[in-house]
Structure formats: C-alpha cells, structure tokens
C-alpha cells in the first residue's frame, strides 16, 4: 500500500529572515499543497535520497515522510544547501507514532537544493513510502 506525501515550499510576501529551524508538527495541523511527490520502497539498512529546490520566494518548507506501517521504522535526515544536517527524526518526532514524520522548516529556509535522506531503520521485508 503506497501513501502520498509532499515536500512543500510556501511563499509569503514580507517574510522575515532569521535563524533556520526545523520543528516537528502534528500531522493533521496544516494543509499541504505538494510541489513534489515521490513514492518508492525501502528495505532494512537501505538509504534513499530525495531533493527539492527552495527559491528566495519561499518562506517555509514542509517535509512529510509517510509509510503508514507502525511495525516498521524509518529515519529521516534533512540537509540544507550549506550541508548542515537536521535529524535524525523518527516516527514520534511529530508527537504521534503513526508511520509518518511531518516536519515544518520555517523562518525562510535557505535558497538552494535541500536533500532528504531516508534510512530503513527497522524494516521487515520491503516498505512502501512517500515523501
């Protein structure tokens, strides 16, 4: 069973520039409009990389990894264009153990290519996921 998840960049006029931070948010606390969606699979110990470009007009970015199966565990790392690493994040990072990691990067994320590393932390067989 595949699940749909988005990497989202949000534009806002007059957004303030300040220190970049990634905050975990409840998976149901926002509406997402996806600009990029990838559905794929992962196995135990496997690493998959995903990228998205953030432009100067973006004031926030949501990284939403969804596999829906709470018996398996995936790990998420996020890298900004300068190479700074955020994570690891696990299923409970957003306050809910539901097979989903939903992160909000706000405070005007750095312009450039952001990378997400998904790691099969504890996977039995093959796990479908979307990001």
UniProtKB/TrEMBL annotation:
<protein>
    <submittedName>
        <fullName>Peptidase domain-containing protein</fullName>
    </submittedName>
</protein>
